[in-house]
Write a structure and sequence with these properties.
Layout: E1 16-23, E2 32-37, H1 63-72, E3 79-83, H2 93-102, E4 106-111, H3 116-122, E5 128-132, H4 141-144, H5 149-163, E6 166-173, H6 180-193, E7 197-202, E8 234-238, E9 245-247
Parallel strand pairs: 2-3, 3-4, 4-5, 5-6, 6-7, 7-8
Antiparallel strand pairs: 1-2, 8-9
Helix pairs in contact: 3-5
The structure holds iron/sulfur cluster.
Iron/sulfur cluster (SF4) binds next to loops.
Length: about 250
């Protein structure tokens, strides 16, 4: 396994790899700006933001530039989403979140839960979490390339569920990496943990690295059994586009 979760940026300022001035899909139901944090310790084969993975890459924007932009959007946006990469890898996340909260914004966070301790420390400042679950927890390394990564994700998911903070758990369904049987096992794990809001999103080719994708990435998606999502309070199947949201009955 090449990737590692031991990468520890030392910068005291949040390292930013990109900024979306306006998004209607990064936080469902909210008008938000999205701050893309630089760096990720995992190496998912289907990553759509591989340029955000290198932890030591030059930031595309300084935090002060980002903060000045957000300040100018007060009253025009509902919230700000910290996405990545993996935002919780950065020690500077906590102060950045507090500063943006101080501007009056609600705060969303996208995370895969790879650093449970830092996730726990920032959770009280978060209004909504988009939490990526990659696979049945024992099978995480198949997706992330990191041994025992499922243990970290499971610990973080438990923290999230205990917090009472609004969330959506989401899984990318890649036809060569997850079977219908895997998805049933994962669903049952999530239900037994108490997950109520769950979305399955079909793998999209856009932005991925062709040399990192499994060879049979173009095969049809596995068919989920009828009623797959019935026991969640809210279940969505996003077939091919982040904006094409289809409630499943
Ligand atoms: S956890 Fe997210 S950012 Fe990191 S490699 Fe996987 S998909 Fe990419």
């Amino acid at each position: 396994m090449n990737a590692t979760t031991s990468v520890k940026p030392t910068s005291t300022e949040l390292r930013v790899g990109g900024l979306a001035h306006l998004s209607t899909c990064d936080w469902p139901g909210e008008l938000a700006a999205t701050v893309f944090c630089q760096g990720c310790g995992w190496d998912c084969a289907y990553c759509h933001n591989p340029h955000l993975r290198p932890t030591g890459a030059e930031p595309q924007l300084s935090w002060s530039e980002v903060f000045a932009f957000l300040k100018s959007r007060r009253g025009l946006l509902d919230g700000v989403v910290f996405s990545g990469g993996e935002p919780t890898l950065q020690p500077a996340l906590f102060r950045a979140v507090q500063a943006v909260r101080g501007l009056g914004f609600r705060i969303g966070l996208h995370t895969a839960g790879m650093t449970p301790d830092r996730f726990a420390s920032v959770l009280p400042c978060i209004d909504w979490v988009g939490f990526d679950v990659k696979a049945p927890f024992h099978a995480y390394s198949r997706i992330t390339g990191v041994d025992h990564s499922g243990d970290k994700a499971l610990a973080s998911l438990r923290l999230l569920l205990a917090s009472g903070i609004a969330y959506e758990v989401r899984t990318t369904l890649h036809p060569a990496l997850l079977s219908a049987e895997d998805m049933v096992e994962l669903r049952d794990q999530l239900l037994s943990l108490g997950v109520t809001h769950y979305a399955v999103q079909h793998f999209r080719l856009a932005g991925t690295r062709p040399n990192r994708l499994p060879p049979d990435s173009h095969q049809p998606q596995p068919i989920l059994p009828p009623g797959y999502g019935d026991r969640f309070h809210h279940f969505y199947l996003r077939r091919s586009s982040l904006t094409a949201v289809t409630p499943e009955s």
